[in-house]
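Discussion board: Methods & Data

I've been asked by a reviewer to show the raw model output for two of the constructs in my manuscript, not just the figures. I'm not sure how much to include, so I'm pasting the format here to get opinions. Each protein appears as its amino acid sequence followed by a line of C-alpha cells. Is this the kind of thing reviewers expect to see in a supplement, or should I convert it first? Here is construct A:
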Amino acid sequence: MQPGDVFGLLIAVLIPTVFLIYVFRRFFTYKEKQLEVQARTAAERAAEYAVSNKELEQRVRVLEQIITDHGAQTAAQIEALRQPVAKLRETPNA
C-alpha cells in the first residue's frame, strides 16, 4: 500500500464514519429530549388525574354520608308526619 492509498482509505472510511457518528448522536440527543418532554407531560396528566380523582372521592364520600346519615333522619321525619295529628298533640314536649 502506498501513502496515497492509505490517505484515500482514511478519507473514504473515516470521514463518513465520523459524520454518521455525529448524526446518530444528534438523533439520539433529540430523541432523549423528546422522551423527557413526554415524561413531563405524562407526569402532569397523572397529577391532574390524581387531583380529579381525589375531588370525586370526596364528593362520593359526601353523597354516601348524606344517604346513610340523613336518610335515616329523613325516613323518621316522614314517619313522624304520617302519625295522626291528635297523637302528636298527646305526646308531651320535652
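Construct B, same format:
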Amino acid sequence: MATVEDRVGDVAALRERVGAMEDYLHLDKKRAEIERVEARAAEPGFWDDAQAAQSVMSGLSGVREEVKLYESICADLDNLEVANELAVEGEDVEMADEVAGIIKDLGTRIDSLEIATWFDGEFDAGDAIVTIMPGQGGLEAQDWAEMLMKMYLKYAERSGWKIDMHDAPEGVELGIDRAVFTVHGRNAYGMLLSEAGVHRLVRISPTDEKKRRQTTFAGVEVLPVIGDDIEVELNEEDLRIDVFRSSGPGGQSVNTTDSAVRITHIPTGIVVSCQNEKSQHKNKETAMVILRARLYEYEEEKRQAELDELRSERKDITFGSQIRNYVLYPYQMVKDVRTGVETGNVDAVLGGDLDDFVIGYHRWRVGGQSAAEAGS
C-alpha cells in the first residue's frame, strides 16, 4: 500500500508533468486557432462549399478535443490535491485508497494525451482496420484469435472508440476463422499500430484430455482507413465480386440470404470479404473500403521494400516471430518482446487493459527514432 509520502510525491510528479504539457502541446496557439476557426465558420459563405467546410471543422474537432482533455486533467488534478490533503489530515484510509486510484487514472490519461503528440503520420489520427488471423496451433489458434478479438473490442470500449464488425466467421470446432473490424476513434490507427504483429499464447490446452501445455499463435494486421482524397488505383475490370450466404451470426435475414460479399483484386490476388451487415450493398461498400486500404499498403510495400511505413515487417505467424507473449501456464505473465513491458495480471490484459503495452510501445518507438536521429 502506498505511504503518505508516496502519494504526495506522486501528486507532485503529476503536477509537474501537467505543467510541462502546457508548453509542448502549444495550447495557447491551439486555443487561438479554435477562436479563429469558429469566427471564420460564422462568416457568410463559409458553408457554401460544404466539403471544404466540413474538412475545416473536422480538423477543429481534434484540436478542441485535445484542449478539452488537458483542461479536464487540470480540473481533476486540482480535486486530487484537495482530496489527498484531506486524506492526510484526517488519516482517512478509505479516502487514501480512492486517491491512489485517481492517481493511477490521471497518470494513464496524461500518458494518452502525451503520446497523442507523437502521432504525426498521415493516418495516425484516424480510424483503423484490424484483421486477426489464426496462425500455427491448429484449432487452438482459432480459439486464441477469438480471445484476441474480444481483448481488442474491450480495449476499444475502454478507449471510447466505436467498432464496426465486418467479418468474424466461426471456426470449425471453436474460436473464429478470422476477424475483420474497423475501429473509429481519435488516434485509433496510431495507437493500435503497437498491436501489429504475431501474438503467442502458452497455456494448458482446453481441448486436450491429457491437459498438456499448448503454444498457439495469431497474427494482427492494422491498416489505416484511406480517405477518398487519397488516390488509390482501382479499376472495376480488375475485380471479381462474389456473393454468398453469411456463415456468421447476425440475425435470421443475414443467414438466409446471399448478403455476404467477397471481392478479389485479380492483379494482386488480394481478397477481402464482409458478411456482418444484412444488406449486400453495405457489405460491398465496406469490403471496398478495406480493399482500398490493402491496395494502398501493397503499393507502399513495393515502393519501400526495406521499411513498411504503415505497419511492422510481415512475418510468419509462428514461433520466433512474436511481438508479445501471453503465458497462462506454468506461471502467468504477459510480456512485450520489443519493449520489455510485462505484467502478471493476465486476466486484466485479456480484459482489455492494454494501456501499459500500447504506451510502452510508442515510448520505445519514439525513443528509437530520437536515438537514430541523434546518431545520424
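Answer (T.O., handling editor elsewhere):
This is acceptable in a supplement if you add a one-line summary per construct. For B, something like: Confidence is low (pLDDT under 50) at residues 249-254, 306-314.
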